[in-house]
């Protein structure tokens, strides 16, 4: 058990210096192995559990930990437009992927899954880079 605790401590210390969020999971795997040692499981089971946890924990948790720590970043100009209404200035053709809308007082390239004529009102549902993805507004 002390062996696994030692590995966990060393991994955490190295992690603090590198902040790559890989050795954090090695430390967690060592704690799993230490728990198994404390519960009386043999060394082969401890080693298998350590190896499995070392491989699986980063696959399951690393991305989530990095997202939680790094935050969302700088919002895109299109983020503020999602959910807002826009007016179609050039007909939207889903086959060609062409069309333009005015949203937030600016002209934007837009795409839709349905053809929408110029002059129609739409709602911005998402964005693909600087192209707005829109759906037609239901009639009032």
Note down, in words, how this protein is organized.
- By secondary structure, this protein is of the alpha+beta class.
- It has 3 helices and 5 strands.
- Helix 1 (2-18) packs antiparallel against helix 2 (23-38) and helix 2 runs antiparallel to helix 3.
Question: How large, in whole angstroms, is the Cα Rg?
Answer: 26 Å
Total domains: 2
Instruction: Please give the number of β-strands.
Output: 5
Secondary-structure element series: HHHEEEEE
Average pLDDT confidence is 89
> Level of helix content?
40-55%
**Beta-strand level of the residues, as a percent range?**
25-35%
Shape: rod-shaped
Instruction: Please give the alpha-carbon distance between the first and last residues.
Output: 69 Å
**Biggest pleated-sheet summary:** 5 strands, mixed, barrel
Structural class: alpha+beta
* Poorly predicted spans: none
Question: How many H/I helices?
Answer: 3
Strand order of the largest sheet: 1-2-3-5-4
